[in-house]
Design brief:
430 residues, alpha/beta, UDP-N-acetylmuramoyl-L-alanine:D-glutamate ligase, Protein-Tyrosine Phosphatase, Chain A, 2 domains, 8-stranded mixed beta sheet, 6-stranded mixed beta sheet, globular
Length: 430
């Protein structure tokens, strides 16, 4: 098959939905000679910040001279973004070749009475096969959903990271912080060190699991601390006191105070890897952070007009985004484009963000889970009267551009599945 046929094949697998459990992925990987077991994996879970932390830690390891694979999801524009080595994406041709190799195994599993693996399970198997053959030194793996029940949880990691825990995916993970954290803590393996930026009740659960599994735990904000210094629209400077070293005048080209927490988490992880004998140092940490690139997170994609895209899709992400807007653009009028999936906290996100906007354009993410998308507009109308509904993301973006005055800020948010398409529309018009 060619790349487009491969994408069509993967899209067709969506019919198997979310079917959690590790049995199918374990069986598939066994038929591939368990390529994941030969990889040195850093496994990253949590509610928000997984992608940013993955990007920063990958950049640090790359600056250390290592060949670093990264498996993340979802993507902004191209499916190939999910599989990167030292920042370079897998080719479409390689995706097609690997799927051609996987397909007979999938068909054999069904013929033998096994359930068909889901789309994400197939993508995960593809990742392990690809990175194993490419002989990466380290593989940074982002959890898809949850932890214990996620198909990535077949790995035996050098290190597990849980960025934070808040209410998200409640239909699948649980209805309390404790329940959700227990699922996310499923990536903690016996004896393997853990880094977390979780707080409160979530931290208590993680501490308990680590104690039970005899896994050393390092807590961001307790074992490492940081101090903001200066910021502008290019990024922010800060200092950080780690366990091994004091780092002065670190810089990240990412906006928002929450990114300092993610940066501290990445540094904490790097220091644990140093403890394990990985050759890294302070200069490598500094350069890696400064060279991190992670689009779609408080990303400025146009200056005139000023357009920001951010993939905030739950209450905690929306709260961080609102705080960043208030800090970076005090008093500036905002035009917002928002589209959210049906299984997200639409009411809470609307309550957090809609009130800061002069006008809101509600749109539909290009995803089957974007059910009842128009209901979001009803939530938004509780906080602002000027609301527009445009199903097509491109039309929604163009409407916002038409509405915005010369000093107004356009914000596009609500779903990574939506902001990626919006990003392409904006860049095409810039």
């Amino acid at each position: 098959m060619n790349y487009q046929e491969a994408l069509d094949y993967l899209a067709n697998l969506a019919k198997f939905g979310f079917n959690f459990g590790l049995g199918r992925i374990q069986e598939l990987l066994k038929r591939l000679n368990n390529p994941h077991l030969a990889l040195k994996v850093i496994h990253i879970g949590g509610t928000n910040g997984k992608g940013s932390t993955s990007a920063m830690l990958s950049a640090i390891l790359q600056e250390g001279g290592y060949r670093v694979g990264a498996f993340t999801s979802p993507h902004l524009k191209s499916y190939t973004e999910r599989y990167r080595i030292n920042g370079a994406e897998i080719s479409g041709e390689q995706v097609a070749v690997l799927l051609d190799e996987l397909r007979p195994h999938l068909e054999a599993m069904v013929a033998e009475g096994f359930e068909h693996p889901t789309e994400f399970e197939v993508g995960t198997a593809l990742a392990f096969l690809y990175f194993n053959r490419e002989k990466v030194d380290f593989l940074v793996v982002e959890v898809g959903m949850g932890g214990a029940i996620d198909s990535t949880n077949v790995v035996k990691p050098l290190l597990s990271i849980i960025t934070n825990v808040s209410m998200d995916h409640m239909d699948y993970l649980g209805h309390t912080i404790e329940e959700i954290t227990l699922v996310k803590a499923g990536i903690i393996k016996p004896g393997a060190p853990v880094v977390t930026a979780a707080r409160g009740e979530a931290l208590g659960v993680i501490e308990s699991v680590c104690l039970d599994k005899k896994s050393p735990l390092y807590v961001v904000g307790r074992d490492l601390s940081w101090q903001p210094a200066a910021w502008n629209l290019s990024g922010q400077e800060f200092s950080l006191r780690g366990r091994r070293k004091y780092y002065e005048k670190l810089f990240i080209p990412l906006l928002g105070r929450h990114q300092l927490v993610n940066a501290a988490t990445a540094v904490a992880a790097a220091e644990v890897l140093m403890d394990l004998g990985v050759s890294l140092n302070g200069d490598v940490v500094r350069l890696g952070l400064a060279r991190t690139r992670w689009p779609g997170r408080m990303e400025i994609v146009s200056q005139k007009p000023l357009v920001i895209i951010d993939g905030a899709h739950n209450y905690d992400g929306a709260r961080c985004l609102r705080q960043a807007l208030e800090e970076y653009f005090p008093g500036r009028s905002i035009i917002m484009v928002i589209g959210m999936l049906g299984d997200k906290e639409r009411a809470l996100v609307a309550a957090e963000l809609a009130g800061v906007a002069r006008a809101v354009v509600v749109t539909r993410p290009d995803n089957p889970r974007a059910s009842n998308w128009r209901e979001l507009a009803e939530e938004v109308r509780n906080y602002t009267s000027e609301v527009y509904l445009l199903e097509d993301t491109g039309e929604a973006v163009r409407k916002a551009l038409a509405l915005a005055g010369p000093e107004e800020v356009i914000l596009v948010t609500g779903s990574l599945y939506m902001v990626g398409g919006a990003r392409e529309v904006i860049l095409a018009q810039s």
